[in-house]
Design brief:
The structure is a single chain. With about 140 residues, the protein is of the alpha+beta class. The protein has one domain: Aminopeptidase, CATH 3.40.630.30. The chain has 4 helices and 5 strands. A 5-stranded mixed β-sheet has the order 1-2-3-4-5, sandwiched between helices. A hairpin with a 2-residue loop joins β2 and β3. The protein is globular and about 40 Å long. The termini are far apart.
Length: about 140
């Protein structure tokens, strides 16, 4: 697998991948999850913290990160179901962690939906654990 930064040319393949791996992103009750809007917003931000994994010409995974100088975040780690359990997710996470570490990031946060026990198990296998916090949010 090859990992590289996402570009505008990757918009449709990434949206296609996300439709397969994040069905909740298409829930109209949560417009903040709209894939097209989020991808374009991240690309416009130009922080180079959004990558895809390629197996040949095929997009098989994505991971997005953020860093504000205090904490890093990982978002939208998604692996095509046909490529799961092959190391794609682990490689993408390792890449994101390395890039955040190079920027001086001391800690990475992420959120997983309560119902997604498979994702929780994956993250725990990589050394991530629950923090003693409650996640709050506000839609703008």
């Amino acid at each position: 697998m090859h990992i590289r930064a996402v570009t505008h040319a990757d918009l449709e393949p990434v949206i296609g991948l996300w439709a397969r791996v994040f069905p909740e992103y298409n829930d109209a009750r949560y417009p903040q999850r709209d894939p097209r809007t989020n991808i374009l917003r991240k690309l416009a931000f130009s922080d180079e913290l959004f990558w895809l994994g390629l197996a040949g010409p095929d997009v098989v995974g994505t991971v997005m990160a953020g860093y504000d100088g205090h904490r890093g975040w990982i978002y939208s780690l998604g692996v095509d179901p046909a490529h799961r359990r092959s190391g794609v997710g682990r490689m993408l996470v390792a890449h994101a962690e390395t890039e955040l570490r190079l920027r001086g990031c001391p800690k990475i946060n992420l959120q997983v939906l309560n119902a997604n026990t498979g994702a929780q198990a994956f993250w725990r296998s990589l050394g991530y654990g629950s923090d003693e916090v409650i996640s709050l949010g506000k839609r703008l």
